[in-house]
Amino acid sequence: MSPAMKDETDTEQTSGNWSWWPSWRPTSMTLLKSAEAKILAYIQNDVWSRFVTLPNQNRIWTLKVTNKSARKHKDEGRVSNLLVQWLRKSFAHLNMPPSLSIGAQTPLVMIHGFGGGVGLWIRNLDALSRSRPVYAFDLLGFGRSSHPSFPSDASLAEEQFVTSIEQWRQSLGLERMILLGHSLGGYLATSYTIQYPERVSHLILVDAWGFPERPQPQLEGSGGQGSEVKRLSPSRWGKALTSVFSLFNPLAFFRAAGPWGPGLVNRFRPDFKRKFENLFDDDTMTQYIYHCNAQNPSGEVGFKAMFESMGWAKRPMVQRVHLLPPSMPVSILYGTLSWVDPSTGKTVVQIRGKSPTSITLIKDASHHVYADQPEEFNRVVESICNTVD
């Protein structure tokens, strides 16, 4: 086993100074592991699950899902590739094309959104791994991955996320990948692709967060000659509430609720139970969400550093999409019922001009497109992947 790979049976990391909280909060990494295992038991294809250790000793919890039939033909492919190598040497003067190789499908790498984890892809992993390996991992600071401290500066927090993704890629030895990100994952996937474009064959953004610029305050009055133009300002109560809530991490109330936390998840996010009700008839998914987010806040702190009031990104990605290589294919997916405004996608298309950029709307899907309409989502993503190889 490579030094960068750690077996899933390795001792789970504790939450440092927060380790006393389980006496109040009914959670632990062990409970998160159990909830996740119940979800992943539904995967039919082969699953490789490990902690990938980064140079700074942070660990990224990782899944690799491959088609069972791929294992069946693995030895055949190895023999075929040896034959290809022999042919290259024997007939080098013929300049055989480098594409003459067996089983070199570009892997699909999936990055979850804020507060998520690998378990949320349960309705997608089997379908998308039919023709290529699929990797999914818990972002640094989320789920079962390490929960280090994050800086309060937006650019530094973003860089810490992106650097961890690149170190993860290096540790696994992935040369190129199709990179898919949902919500916060879409924002980070774009930032990664800007910095490491040679590692990405196609960028897929699913209801990505953090792209639009924050709207300017509306003006009062017509603004015509002789009229007084005033900016609308929030009420004193609104300002006070915003100031108070800005002191806390986004999901602090789940942790502060202690033993009532799991019930709050069921109450405030009953949609998660409905999205997966054909797989689970109990609270499996909401329990998983709770345990993902009741741990020591880490990635949540990094996310907080990256947004301003009401969730707008401090560094809107729409200001940087022009830095993507003109030849980089970008596919943008939105749910028609999502709170994310698809008009931002049109802005991205305009900014990129003649560069390959497409927008697809998934009917009757909310922000969690992959769970609301999994069959259509899987079909669209698989079709995109097939354009790569």
UniProtKB/TrEMBL annotation:
Q: Which SUPFAM superfamilies does the record associate with it?
A: alpha/beta-Hydrolases (SSF53474)
Q: Does Ion transport appear among the keywords?
A: no
* Catalysed reactions, semicolon-separated: 1-O-(1Z-octadecenoyl)-2-(9Z-octadecenoyl)-sn-glycero-3-phospho-N-hexadecanoyl-ethanolamine + H2O = 1-O-(1Z-octadecenyl)-sn-glycero-3-phospho-N-hexadecanoyl-ethanolamine + (9Z)-octadecenoate + H(+); N,1-diacyl-sn-glycero-3-phosphoethanolamine + H2O = N-acyl-sn-glycero-3-phosphoethanolamine + a fatty acid + H(+); 1-octadecanoyl-2-(9Z-octadecenoyl)-sn-glycero-3-phospho-(N-hexadecanoyl)-serine + H2O = 1-octadecanoyl-2-hydroxy-sn-glycero-3-phospho-(N-hexadecanoyl)-serine + (9Z)-octadecenoate + H(+); N-eicosanoyl-1-(9Z-octadecenoyl)-sn-glycero-3-phosphoethanolamine + H2O = N-eicosanoyl-sn-glycero-3-phosphoethanolamine + (9Z)-octadecenoate + H(+)
Please tell me whether the keyword Cell division is annotated for this protein. Answer: no
Annotated Gene Ontology cellular components are: lipid droplet; mitochondrion
Residues in domain AB hydrolase-1? 107-209
One molecular function GO term is: lysophosphatidic acid acyltransferase activity
**Pfam families to which the protein is assigned, alphabetical:** Abhydrolase_1
Q: Name one GO biological process term.
A: lipid homeostasis
List the keywords (alphabetical).
Answer: Hydrolase, Lipid degradation, Lipid metabolism
Q: What does this protein do?
A: Lysophospholipase selective for N-acyl phosphatidylethanolamine (NAPE). Contributes to the biosynthesis of N-acyl ethanolamines, including the endocannabinoid anandamide by hydrolyzing the sn-1 and sn-2 acyl chains from N-acyl phosphatidylethanolamine (NAPE) generating glycerophospho-N-acyl ethanolamine (GP-NAE), an intermediate for N-acyl ethanolamine biosynthesis. Hydrolyzes substrates bearing saturated, monounsaturated, polyunsaturated N-acyl chains.
Family of this protein:
Belongs to the peptidase S33 family. ABHD4/ABHD5 subfamily.
The record ties this protein, via PANTHER family, to: (LYSO)-N-ACYLPHOSPHATIDYLETHANOLAMINE LIPASE, RE40534P-RELATED
Q: What is this protein called?
A: (Lyso)-N-acylphosphatidylethanolamine lipase
Instruction: Name the source organism.
Output: Cyprinus carpio
The encoding gene: LOC109055461
